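Dear colleague,

Thank you for sharing your sequence with our group. We've completed the structure prediction you requested, and as agreed, I am returning the results in plain text so they can be pasted directly into your records. Please verify that the sequence below matches your submission; if there's any discrepancy, let me know and we will rerun it promptly.
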Amino acid sequence: MNNEIEHLLATAADDTDRPLNTDIDDLLIRARRSVRRTRIATASTAVLTTAAIIGGIATWSATRDESAGPAGTPGQTITIDVKTGRIIDNETGKTVVPAPPVSPLSDAEVLGRCSQYDLAYRRLAQSGRKTADKAGPINARWKVVVKSGDQSVLNALLLSPDESIVATCTMSSPTKPDSMARSATADVAARSQYRAPLSGQDGFRIPVPGVARVLLDVAGESNPREALVGTDGFVTLGRPAKEHTLITLDRIRGYDATGKKVYDETPKPFAAPARTVDPAVTVKTAQAITPVVVLTKEPGTGRPLIAAPPVSPLTDEQVTTRCEGVDEIYFKDLDKGGVNTDDAVIKAAGPISRAWQVALKTGTGDKLTALLISPDKRVFAWCHMLTPTAKGAYDYTRGAVQADGKFAKSPDFAMVPDGVAQIVVDLPTGPTRALMSNGFFIWGLTGGNSDVKSVQVRGYDAQGKQIYNQPMDLDVDFD
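Please find the predicted structure tokens below.
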């Protein structure tokens, strides 16, 4: 999803795709990036992989005034107006769009605001996930490396005390977080190397010392943009009010304090590593078992079971028709170094068609969550829609079969264990019967992954005997 470089570099958590590393924010966004913004106010994240920071980065003030830069310096490749601070790109003669404003908030105020909404780390800690993010919650020991905005709107990058994690904190007001994300420092640095869409709040790192100004050539825009430069080589694109449009960087140039170019990078399309899964491997689902003893109460406690989510009244043809719309968006930039540069297994399945099997569907009215399986039985498409067409709110992602013939565990659905006839999920609202269909199960109209929790999932055989009991990370926030 898919999306930013963390997705493109893939993730050990998202083993439905490529086994590299990223943060959970990108996992949750994946192919959903362009649509999440329509319905999710706060994206929760958790970092899975950390790495050493790039050394030798010169530091400078994140709040310095750049409007009085030098002009006419020998070797200069940009011209800076000493009165206005506006920059002329000497290569093209075009005026550069100014950098986003430095936030007037103190570093202490920035940290205070962001720490209140550090949901990424809180949910990580609550779920008990074993990850490499050991930086702990945001507090006064974190460093504000770049900050943009005004007294209300804020976009900041925060560096953890051990320099392993960069947190992105974006707020629409002092009490309204827009998104909170945690990424490995190396992943943030890598954003400048690969051609992947970024949002207005995304930042990255320039891997050369002494960069004082950064110009960005943005795909589809006639004039270069200037990024806001902070400390330790970090820069941000800022966050213009209500701007959720993704941008793609065609070129990144860095200049020292005299205006001399010291960095010039043309981001490269990402080439996904080759899959090692045997082409003959197809998904292996558990054999369906009809319960003889149907559970109505939770064994052991006697608590009444909440009814399973309803089967969607939509026909399979209606489901595939709806999901084709979001699938088309997913494939829009495929093979162009864009949002959805996925591996060969997923590509080979092609777009959704009527030949795809609707393996699971739940919902009422226009609301729909569906799982579709490709004709070759090697790829799934997970489709969540709140309106009849892709013009409304939706989430979407894909994944590929693993070497054992299984689809990886997902916060949105799961595969039925062998021998299990009925499943009970311990949701925060109470023990709930799962909807089971074609070897898959789901516990509600999930969408957005905005409330992922670790809960117990218990499976029972046909006679009602418990034969499976495992914790799973599930989305328990239902539309």
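Summary note from our side: The two ends are 21 Å apart (CA to CA).

Kind regards,
the structure core
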